[in-house]
């Protein structure tokens, strides 16, 4: 494991913890897309099915369990514990427009036509677009609380660090995972505009990140 992979995992973990703490402390999931969180839970579920058949390392196994647990804890808080604060009208992205193409692509483009491999590929493709309902929700409402933007920043940082991890591994090990790299690049592109707004508006002291509204 290299420093970029470790830093990416830490950034990913920080993002999810920030989100859960935000929900728990405010007792509200306002501004948070439940659909994105369900998609991320699905990502972890389909990716980590190998927990029961493959052991790589203690670190790997523990992180998989932690991410699974936190993902479902987030879904529980949004749809059960604080359901009355969830804004389903603003969280209106049609997730079937993501799930159907991703499922089809995972059958067509994979490394082996086997159930575990197809599900792993599905998780990689789905992760690259799972944040879209959240970004769509922010665009629709026109603003996001600073804690939500911090969550998105660390999530985007995780993807950027993983890109650095793949570059490092290619240069040091000759390892290149085309599916993961291309999907990671696509996902990072989705965050680029958000990163600009985060730096120019949130880090300069605004309590919320307001988006420019169309004239």
From TrEMBL:
Report the protein name in the record: ER lumen protein-retaining receptor
Q: Which domain of life is it from?
A: Eukaryota
The processes (GO biological process) annotated in the record are:
protein retention in ER lumen; protein transport; vesicle-mediated transport
Q: What is the lineage of its organism?
A: Eukaryota, Metazoa, Chordata, Craniata, Vertebrata
Membrane topology summary: Multi-pass membrane protein
Question: Which GO molecular-function terms appear in the entry?
Answer: ER retention sequence binding
The record, for Pfam families, names:
ER_lumen_recept
Q: Where are the transmembrane segments?
A: 65-82, 118-138, 150-168, 180-199
What's a single GO CC term here?
Answer: COPI-coated vesicle membrane
Encoding gene (name): KDELR3
